[in-house]
Specification:
The chain is about 50% helix and about 10% strand. By secondary structure, the protein is α/β, with parallel strands linked by helices. The protein has a six-stranded parallel β-sheet, sandwiched between helices. Strand 5, helix 5 and strand 6 form a beta-alpha-beta unit. The protein starts with a strand and ends in a 12-residue tail after the last helix. GO terms for molecular function: DNA binding. This is DNA-binding response regulator. Pfam families: GerE (PF00196), Response_reg (PF00072). Keywords: DNA-binding, Phosphoprotein.
Length: about 210
């Protein structure tokens, strides 16, 4: 589902997404309140959410959707590279943040990956955020397995993919991810991925669509 207050942007995104047979746009909203209502009605896998909209803005709408419909992933799609805006969107529960100059192919990849719960950040967004990530004076003590999971998480792998690559059970991956977030004092997989990039475990571009 698409949420943007500009009709031309909504139609452009719909056209972009229609180029892939496996992606279907089920609805479009012109503001945050309509986005929340349509998400409840249509139950899409992904909401592409503009952030600056009249009435209920995209950040507030994202928070409501993630709280009330946690199975629906939200990807922020914005023309702005403001650190606070990016941080607010991710804090509200967006699984990623893409810039509106993202091309059609990258958008397709990002939507598919976000549907699997993978972190999706435009390279410029990742680079901006990494600079602001706080690294504690005493680094958290991750086990070797937790570090392996963190690296794959930061590279955009979903839990099932991590389980297959490390030859462990999906439930074990969930436990490792939970422990990682606790040790890093992180609220989301995205924050954990940014930490991994900040300390050099993965390149800054690793969380971008690929």
């Amino acid at each position: 589902m698409i949420a943007d207050d500009h009709a031309m942007v909504r139609e452009g995104l719909r056209s972009f997404l229609s180029l892939s047979a496996d992606l279907e746009t089920v609805g479009a909203a012109a503001d945050g309140r309509e986005a929340v209502a349509l998400t409840h009605e249509l139950r899409p896998d992904i909401v592409l959410m503009d952030l600056l909209m009249p009435g209920l803005d995209g950040i507030s709408a994202t928070a409501v959707i993630r709280r009330e419909l946690p199975s629906v992933e939200v990807v922020a799609l914005s023309g702005y590279l403001e650190p606070q805006l990016i941080a607010d969107a991710l804090h509200a529960g967006a699984v990623g943040y893409l810039l509106k100059d993202t091309d059609a192919e990258e958008l397709h990849r990002a939507v598919r990956a976000a549907a699997a719960g993978q972190v999706q950040l435009s390279p410029a967004v990742a680079a901006r955020l990494v600079r602001d990530v706080h690294v504690p004076t005493t680094p958290p003590q991750l086990t070797r397995r937790e570090e392996e999971v963190l690296i794959l998480l930061a590279r955009g792998r979903a839990n099932g993919q991590i389980a297959r690559e490390l030859h462990i059970a999906p439930q074990t991956v969930k436990t490792h991810v939970s422990n990682i977030l606790s040790k890093l004092n992180a609220e989301s997989r995205t924050q954990a991925a940014l930490y991994a990039m900040r300390v050099g475990l993965v390149p800054v571009h690793a969380a971008a669509p690929s």
